[in-house]
Design a protein that fits this description.
This protein is mainly alpha-helical and about 240 residues long. It is built from 10 helices and no strands. The chain has one domain. Helix 3 packs across helix 9, helix 4 crosses helix 6 and helix 5 runs antiparallel to helix 10.
């Protein structure tokens, strides 16, 4: 791997998983546009899948007792189907179209979060399956299905501690589904694993600093900072040829 590409990988993983640790999701929304500066969409998704795997191993072991397992169980089928479809599109889709699609998705998420989001989650169980399906699809395609799962989990979980832990469990479910399929499709390779091991110290530092900030978090300021960063990323992806 070229030094410039390696440095981009370090920057993306640090920023993405710092944000992921602080707010509980949106790490891929931050990291993926940075990764796409120097690598293909498939390579970027492969690296993100690995670091979500590492993150899940660490966080699930710590939060297991707080995870609402019934919510995870209800999302299994929708997630498997959605992830499989998303990876299939990733493998055979046109890279430029997919990048612009990602930019559009990020901007929609920013608009939704800024102007339309409410405290209620998804009340209808059938809609919960649909949101889980599309969450799995975007997780397989862009590793960005977290916001859709938030809407489902928010309906089922009231306590914020349990909500955060259950979201960690949902991301672990996505990762367990996604990594084997990526390997089978040859999108994720042994070389990706080797490269990721070199970046683990940066990943661990991002997680450590994220936990430190979380304990002192001004939630509104952090939300505005994340949304601003996402807005810029979405614009760049839409206009970049």
């Amino acid at each position: 791997m070229a030094l410039s590409v390696f440095l981009i990988l370090i920057l993306a993983i640090f920023l993405g998983f710092f944000i992921q640790t602080v707010v509980g999701f949106a790490g891929a929304l931050v990291a993926l546009p940075i990764l796409l500066i120097s690598m293909s969409l498939q390579d970027a998704i492969a690296y993100l899948a690995l670091f979500y795997l590492y993150s899940s191993i660490i966080l699930v072991s710590k939060e297991w007792k707080n995870i609402d397992k019934s919510v995870i169980f209800k999302l299994i089928l929708a997630t498997i189907i959605g992830v499989a479809i998303g990876i299939w599109v990733l493998q055979f889709g046109k890279p430029l179209v997919l990048k612009k699609m990602l930019g559009f998705f990020i901007l929609l998420y920013v608009i939704y979060t800024t102007f339309l989001i409410k405290n209620e989650g998804v009340k209808n169980p059938k809609l919960g399956f649909v949101f889980g399906l599309f969450g799995g699809f975007f997780s397989g395609l862009f590793s960005t299905g977290g916001p859709l799962y938030v809407m489902v989990v928010k309906n089922a979980v009231v306590d914020m501690k349990v909500f955060r832990a259950t979201m960690i469990g949902v991301l672990a479910l996505i990762t367990i589904t996604r990594v084997p399929i990526l390997f089978v499709q040859n999108i994720l390779t042994v070389n990706h694993v080797y490269d990721s091991l070199l970046v683990i110290p940066v990943f661990l530092l991002a997680t450590f600093l994220g936990k430190k900030l979380y304990s002192k978090l001004n939630e509104k300021a952090m939300k505005n900072m994340v949304l601003s960063l996402l807005f810029i990323s979405g614009i760049v992806l839409l206009i970049k040829s």
